[in-house]
Amino acid sequence: MTISVTTRTDPGRAEQRATRIVFFIAGFGYAAWAPLVPFAKARAGISDGGLGLLLLCLGAGSIVMMPLAGALSAKLGCRRVIVASALFVAATLPFLTLVSSAPLLVAALLIFGASVGTIDVSMNIQAIIVERASGRSMMSGFHGLFSVGGIAGAGGMTALLSLGISPFAATLCISACILAALAIAQAHLLSYGSRSEGPPFAIPHGVVLFIGMLCFVLFLAEGAILDWSAVFLTSDLHMEATYAGLGYAAFASTMTIGRLFGDRIVGRLGSRQIILVGGLFGAAGFTVATLVTSPAIAILGYALVGVGCSNIVPVLFSAVGRQTVMPENVAVPAITTLGYIGILAGPAGIGFIAHASSLSVAFLVMALMLVGVAFSGRFLRT
To answer: What transmembrane ranges does the database entry give (predicted)?
Structure first.
């Protein structure tokens, strides 16, 4: 029997498993691009400044597509949107290793970014529906699989390249893995979207705007560590550049572990306590990493930020499923867009404060913002 787009069945274990696979696919495909950046730069013959502007195209493509992704999920169902966007990710990755002109690279990155943004929104809409049907916390585990996928994607691509495999052949391997995983998941993706439809785009307001601003701060913190932790470790703490990446590695590792075990913790402590304790841990981590003079302790500080921030964003996405101010197909793109803006604006904002004062002051400002997040949980419906 053919199931129509509007047919709704109660999601069960099969849908939960499919949701986990899709989160893994999204992280896997997105992270596989990172090891390819130096090859793209050399092939196109662009400067570091040009590369920075070029990489903004990926984020721009994501942000532009996110509102439309919510509307498409409501109209066509999560399955169709997720499958289509995952296919675009798999198709675009090999193309990114072939183009040699900047204009074509811009176009390819816009499409790749749009595909990533689309799957990000649609899979979170599915995750909200599946979690709500289960009656228990599941969002941390879903987001943990995204992190695992990211580690596997970046690590797998790096391993393939280190074996002497060409970038094009390596991306074909990655794309084949994406298609195989998608084939397993697609039958149990939801044929419908959010419970009520809304306009394709709406300015976030009320609790949705509040949740979006909290996501902005959390993604801002992630962007700060991603782009500035190595700089701080080398310039302020005089760590050897060879090991400077350990700061972000510690953050990413503890965040992934925290999310994989997060559903039990959220179920035991509750959403408000997760935001309170997590925000304070994150602020403490930034403070420790900034004020100590030992690189090893600073790395532990970044790890503490990962522990603290790991489950706040999943809790915030769950809160979107409980609010009634805006339909999910509008609310999810809104908060996701604000989060992406945070991770894109984070490096520039930190750099601006560092230029006006110092990098230490910029990180302490980040700590204060996380304190603000910590005490915001009491305003959310749990």
So the answer is: 21-40, 52-74, 81-99, 105-130, 142-162, 168-189, 201-221, 241-262, 274-293, 299-320, 332-353, 359-380
